[in-house]
Design goal:
about 220 residues, alpha/beta, Purple Acid Phosphatase, chain A, domain 2, six-stranded mixed β-sheet, three-stranded antiparallel β-sheet, about 25% strand
């Protein structure tokens, strides 16, 4: 947390699995306590993963007692860029994920609304995974192929840092901040600097590889 505060980010994405196991209320209370020093300094974007419970999360963050919505998504405008966070979680009992037709239709409307804004899409589940991935990820790929404003898709879930290509855009798989599946796998957080020509990525943590530059299409 001290390293992230020193980096002074203009925003922070936590891409799912805010909780340890089944999304209990005390997990989110602990999460809020850990993130508080950073949250006082910069906005946070929180996605949900397969370990998260939407109702308990909203009750902790927003003091809401009404039923949680079917999915949680966000559009963050930081001109000239835009970040769209999707909800690929089914529930805290299910490892695999799904975006759903309604959310994909909502995403397409958002992309049509500002077709010139370079956009990064984030969600927890990738399509292909060492565990169960997102069952309708192919629908997202087809949408990305049609919308040239989308520059990158960011996923998590695999607990291993990897950069590749997906439907003509960059695909960034985030590492775990902790709990690697294999001892050799680096853990940490990603410092990302977005520019008009591309994005600079740097894994901050033990055994960090060299930085990566990804040009926009």
């Amino acid at each position: 947390m001290a390293e992230m505060r020193q980096f002074r980010p203009s925003g922070v994405l936590v891409n799912g699995d805010l909780a340890w196991s089944r999304g209990h209320s005390e997990d989110y209370e602990r999460f809020v306590g850990i993130m508080h020093p950073l949250a006082t300094q910069t906005p946070l974007v929180l996605a949900v993963g397969n370990h998260d419970d939407r109702g308990n999360l909203l009750a902790c963050l927003a003091n809401r007692s009404d039923p949680a919505p079917q999915w949680l998504a966000a559009v963050v405008e930081q001109p000239p860029f835009r970040l769209i966070s999707l909800d690929s979680s089914i529930d805290a009992q299910t490892v695999g994920g799904e975006i759903g037709g309604a959310q994909l239709a909502w995403l397409e409307d958002e992309l049509e609304a500002e077709p010139g804004a370079p956009t990064v899409i984030c969600l927890h589940h990738p399509g292909e995974s060492s565990s169960e991935g997102c069952s309708d990820f192919s629908g997202l790929v087809r949408l990305v192929q049609r919308r040239r404003c989308v520059q990158a898709v960011v996923t998590a879930h695999d607990h291993e840092y990897c950069v590749g290509q997906l439907g003509g855009v960059h695909h960034v798989r985030l590492p775990a901040v902790g709990f690697p599946f294999e001892e050799r796998t680096p853990t940490g957080w990603i410092a990302a600097v977005l520019g008009r020509a591309g994005i600079e990525l740097q894994l901050r943590g033990p055994g960090s590889p060299a930085g990566t530059h990804l040009p926009w299409r």
